[in-house]
Amino acid sequence: MTAIVARIVTKLCPNKVINWYRSNARKLPWRNSSTSPWGVLLSEVMSHQTQVERVAPIWQEWIERWPTPAAFVQAGTDEILRAWGSLGYPRRALRLKECAQVIVDEHGGEVPEDVDKLLALPGIGDYTARAVACFAYGKNVPVVDTNVRRVVARVERGEALGAPGKKEIEQVAALLPEQNGPEFSVGLMELGALVCTARAPKCEECPVRAECAWLAAGKPEAEVKKRSQRFVGTDRQVRGKIMRLLRESDSPVEQKLIDDLWHDPAQLSRALFSLLEDGLAEQDEKGYFHLPR
């Protein structure tokens, strides 16, 4: 184990990654010392499966509107879903409200800093719990997303990114320096997002190119590409159209307006029913549809 840790530290030099990050990091609104743990948690949940460029303006609006979990739980569900806009996967917004309620009820309105307590919150998975502990509270814990996995796989093992495994958390934990660990962690993530990308990596700009086993081996085997998830024509697209109609309507919507959104009645009905089942839409006694209140 000692030999493995030494090898890891030698290849991914923390100082090189940190210095590169300080000069090249994107200026995202939540990356400053005044951002609260609640703001960090919001940014992580919103950024899941969504480009940070799309998240940034909506995050800014949310943190100004609901600066604390206590303020957020006072908002109506319809208000929250309208504010979520077109970020996608709106069930995340519902889970955020559940999460905020638990923070208020069980943690005095303060986002917990312990990873296990964060994991116990509704809708918070392993990555998000570690990210909040690391970036909000400065805990030197491994934060492993796809970008980090790709950098470590290439630099350390000379491999293309494979299937995720639990040992990756241990390997990244072994990389963490005693000083500036959280900054190193965010630096690894940024390096994977901007330079060590899945397609067309910018190896000439990489601060650890001299140590990279993948580059030294001639960039063996292209990464296994997941087939892009089709969106056009899917139930998800239809759900999005219905949600947009409900968000933009000041009053409940009659069935005919929903029927006009899509050419396939069976698919439309299926998408509408799934929204009702997920708690993202409701039907009143007159048969009209609206966002949950």
TrEMBL record:
Keywords: 4Fe-4S, DNA damage, DNA repair, Glycosidase, Hydrolase, Iron, Iron-sulfur, Metal-binding
Record has Hydrolase as a keyword: yes
Ranges where the HhH-GPD domain occurs: 46-194
Signal sequence range: none
Catalyzed reaction equations: Hydrolyzes free adenine bases from 7,8-dihydro-8-oxoguanine:adenine mismatched double-stranded DNA, leaving an apurinic site
Enzyme class: hydrolase
The protein, known as: Adenine DNA glycosylase
Protein species of origin: Corynebacterium ihumii
Superkingdom in the source lineage: Bacteria
Entry cofactors: [4Fe-4S] cluster
PROSITE patterns noted in UniProt: ENDONUCLEASE_III_2 (PS01155)
Enzyme Commission identifier(s): 3.2.2.31
